[in-house]
Design a protein that fits this description.
Chitinase A, domain 3; single chain; 7 strands
Length: 286
Amino acid sequence: MIKGLIVFLLIFVAVSYGKGSDLKLFDKIVFVVNGQPVLKSEVELAMQWFGIRDKKEAAKKLIDQILVAQAAEKSGIRVSPKEVEDAILRIAKANRLHSVKEFKEKLEEQNLSFTEFKDFIKRELLIQRYIQVHLRRVLFGGIKEGKEVRLRTVRIIFLSTKDKDFRKKYQLLKEKLNKKNFSEMAKEHSDDPVTSEKGGLLGDVRKGDLIKKLDIPIWEKKVGEIFEVPVENGVYFVYIVSEKKKIINEKLTGEEISKRLKKEYEIQLNKLREKAIIEYLDKSYM
């Protein structure tokens, strides 16, 4: 984020656009990432944020950002509108502005979309939380040293309503899913690439780690139960495998933790890239 803030300081002195009407006239969808359309103006925003002049390179970084943000949301990670607004306020103050309103006006003066910028920042926050919550949990259990916590091991299957076979897969799971075949069903049918290859294993979660729609029933239901959680873009099948208490005593330096997180992040990102469906409407961005 700090690097992003420094780069963004250059926007107001280094960027020159045409009139707002011209921007809207020439804006277009240039590629689609797992069903999510991306506009030319979003790539241009990414070029400024990442400090990249080559639109192809910026497009690749933007695609990576979208893929990880999508994975974060599928893993149950959330970022509230208030958190996005607070982050934008910090950026505004770094640019010597006093409010989000002033910052929005400054963006509009530069023919930059405030809505697109909010989406961009939301994805950046999702990535940070994905690393700090999901990847930390994968590597270290997500637990502070010496603190005893109650954990539940959870497996999930996510079915996306965007999948043309959604109804067929949903009906199959509704009729056939059980404790014994949950792992195999997840590998075969889950639309979450991060957990599917692990048999739907989300890992050990603490109360409050996930979005409320998942967190509340996971801690209300009994160990061994399988249940559904409908969400806006699909449905989760959740299996509470077990419960335990755990204390982490591993002592690592900040540098060691950063290295492990960076390595795990690259591993997960490569997996997301391999399974991503990217459709280029404008081949010049390939």
